[in-house]
Amino acid sequence: MSSVSHELKDTSVASSKWLDAHYDPVANLYTFSSCIGESLLHELHLVVGDLGTGVCNVKLKVYRGTGVLSESTLLDLPTGLVSFLMDLHEPRTPAIAVASGPFIYVYKNLRPYFKFTLPSLEVNPLEQDVWSQAKEDMIDPMTLKEMLEGLRDKAEIPLSVRSLRFLMLEPQEMENFVLLHKEQPIRRQTVITCIGMLKKNMADEDAVSCLVIGTENGDVYILDPEAFTILYKMSLPSSPTLMDVTGQFDVEFRITVACRNGNIYILRRDSPKPKYCIELSSHPVGLVRMGKNVVVGCTHETLHGYTQKGKKLWTAYLPAPVTTMALMDLPTRGFQAVLVGLANCEVHMYRDKNLISTIKTPDVVTSICFGRYGREDGTLIMTTKGGGLIVKILKRTAVFDDRDSAPGPPIAQSIRLNVPKKTKLYVDQTLRERENAVAMHRAFQMDLSRLRLAAARAYVKALESSLTPMSASLTEPLKMNAVVQGLGPSFKLTLNIQNTASCRPVMNLAISFLYDENLYSMRTAFFKIPLLVPGLNYPIDTFVECLSDKGISDIIKVFVLREGKSAPLLTAHINMPVSEGLALN
User: Fold this and answer.
1) What is the pLDDT of residues 412-457, one digit of tens each?
2) Which Gene Ontology CC terms are recorded (predicted)?
3) How far apart are the first and last CA of the chain?
4) CA 7, CA 377: separation in Å to the nearest integer?
5) Helix, strand, coil shares of the chain as percentages rounded to 5?
6) Which tens digit of pLDDT belongs to each residue from 324-365?
7) Residue 272: CB partners within 8 Å, gap ≥ 6?
8) 406, 414, 390, 424: which is closest to 348 by C-alpha?
């Protein structure tokens, strides 16, 4: 046990905020967040729908402290459980509803109390006729298979489980299957995919609550808490997988449902169809309501925040896929956050889009439950992929900062600007732009063309006068200007070259001059440029002799090239002044 506690201490990063109360790596508890909850059975107990190995050992377990108080065998895998109050009779003992297959098993005082069965669905009449013909031996099994395959592809009402199983059989097994089932009536039954709880007429914690269930065929039922009759039915475009319920049935309620088609639908009272729809970029794997907002975890390692009307508020990017999500609610402190279990053995705590705490776990967390347990208000209960059970207690001195601990842009960047309201002048200007859109566009295009023409003329003038020769290559940012000194016939030509890059030096460059050899002669017509450090000015001097006495001048072209390349990086034209004398040879 000491090695286990030592391992837990090494793996816990948030030890300053959490106490490690219990860790059992071999608890053999395999469940999800939808199948774990707390119930006040004389005292506060932990109720878990244990999936076991998936085939056997499927049980309903009740924990008191860290030990198992009772176990009840379940006939099928549970899809969810809730603890709710059925009536006002004393003593006020809550019941436990476990959804499994098409049934809801209700337990009271840890004993089976009631079993609710979903209503049967409508059976395809053509399917009934086909099986009636098979019953009277009017068709053989192969003909039955062909007719059922045709119905499966074209019928609006899906086939029953019996017909689907028949189509999966080998030809030699079909005859025995037909003889075994042809005398039995055809039934089409759906199954429960998610379950929730809705207060009946009061918002108190000990108020009577209704059960809300989602089914595979896309229906949502609200059940009476005492008679277990269907009070209300709503329909969805797809099968629901996650559900969150708030409000009261007799007043106003909202049911937020994540469906298998990747969308989230919001159902309201007196509306059998979804009121709002949120289209996600990837399928949801977790759904938590925090205040008036909905937080959704998706398969693409993202966490999204939405309003209850479907408006997107923020997005947070996660380091690993989401495995489970739960709400952390501390009413005594007025604090709420979202707990997100990740596949990298971490549990992140988010308040809005800000990551405020991280908990390291020894294994991947598959279910999270936070609330009062025993005498502690802030108890975090987690189960792991390997069947372990982790219990942590929040320290009473723990303080969570709203500052985001994850790297990224500051919080101030996500604060919305206080944009002023539209004034009458703004509205009038908008109307004027709408009415004169064509004329304003033409005027804009005319001014833009004139601006381009003026810029082109200025550029040509600069090239002709060599005022601002700049490199046209983005890879070699160079700047060069030329200064001619003297009255003639000897001139001093100075080239000032500068590297305009921010931090990268330029090397392996050379300068070449092109001129009329009948008019001018140069002592050196080719230079190698030293390494150019950014920001420094490098002057290069040479002398030019004028050979003509006719009082004429010409242009000397300057090329900056990279050694071994023929294409110049920079070109400048230098207008030489008229010489006032003749060169002495």
Assistant:
1) 666 777 778 888 888 889 899 999 999 999 999 999 999 999 999 9
2) axoneme; BBSome; centriolar satellite; ciliary membrane
3) 105
4) 26
5) 15, 45, 40
6) 999 988 888 888 899 999 999 999 999 888 888 889 999 999
7) 233, 234, 235
8) 406
